[in-house]
Design a protein that fits this description.
The chain contains ten helices and no strands. With 203 residues, the chain is mainly α. Helix 4 packs across helix 6 and helix 6 packs across helix 9. The N and C termini lie far apart (82 Å).
């Protein structure tokens, strides 16, 4: 009996998984282009009805969070670059900043949409794996004497996260040119990470 039930339900599960994948894929594409895109437009782009979409994602908040999670999973796979381990910490951090910004810039309007419907802590939580990589690199740089040790590692990680996301907001607001973002971010974050503390300053 169990086997027959499983067999009967399997096509439904497969259909549901295909629909979810199509909705999330369409959401990623459309929200990355326009944070104001409607749920109806996403359903149409995914080739499903609104009833089907709401059956899987009962609110815009749930849909945006699923799309955000998917985007960050894709980004994390790109950022998992084993070559960084063989580079000096400042050079590895420069590459990580540039790669992180390239991905964030591609989806910055998705993050605008997320900012509108999700609490900041939930957005931050989706970045845990990526920020763990940042933390490990900061610790390596501290151990090698390249990065400052006078500030908590957790604070430096938060600074990395906050400055990157602030750059996306500044571009959307027209206060930062898109072509300037990568060098500005690199200069800012490396300055923060390598700067001497107050006790090291000369009078």
């Amino acid at each position: 009996m169990t086997s027959r039930t499983s067999t009967r339900r399997s096509p439904r599960r497969a259909d549901a998984e295909r629909n979810i994948a199509a909705i999330v894929s369409a959401g990623l594409r459309l929200l990355s282009a326009d944070p104001n895109v409607s749920v109806a437009d996403i359903a149409q782009a995914a080739g499903v009805g609104r009833v089907t979409l709401y059956g899987h994602f009962p609110s815009r908040e749930a849909l945006v969070e699923a799309v955000l999670g998917h985007a960050i999973e894709l980004a994390d796979a790109i950022l998992d670059d084993e070559r960084l381990a063989g580079l000096p910490a400042p050079e590895a951090m420069t590459r990580l900043i540039e790669s992180s910004w390239e991905i964030l810039d591609r989806h910055r309007r998705l993050f605008t949409a997320a900012d509108r419907v999700l609490p900041g802590e939930r957005i931050r939580a989706h970045h845990d794996r990526t920020l763990q990589r940042v933390e490990e690199l900061i610790v390596r740089g501290r151990d090698s004497g390249d990065f400052r040790t006078d500030l908590p590692v957790s604070w430096l990680v938060t600074t990395f996260y906050s400055i990157l996301h602030s750059a996306a907001q500044e571009i959307e607001a027209g206060r930062l040119r898109r072509q300037d973002a990568a060098p500005v971010l690199t200069a800012t974050l490396l300055s923060v990470l390598t700067g001497a503390g107050p006790d090291a300053r000369t009078p």
